[in-house]
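Single-chain item
Fold in token form
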Amino acid sequence: MTATGAKAKKHVQLHKDGSVWAKGQTLEGVPTGYWEWFRVDGTLMRSGHFEQGRQVGEWTTYDKLGRVYKVTVKK
């Protein structure tokens, strides 16, 4: 919870076909915590953390077989 008493809410965005594109949490409408993005076939494409809507720490991109393709460090 924040000082205002707000609680993080689960958030899911869908591809046009209805499959999950992204999922994570928002706090007062702003991305927070751990998020994941998926390809239309359901494989994990990218993951990382948000703090107050900003990307922080390690962000991982995965290939189509689910192997780590690259890791980017955000400040």
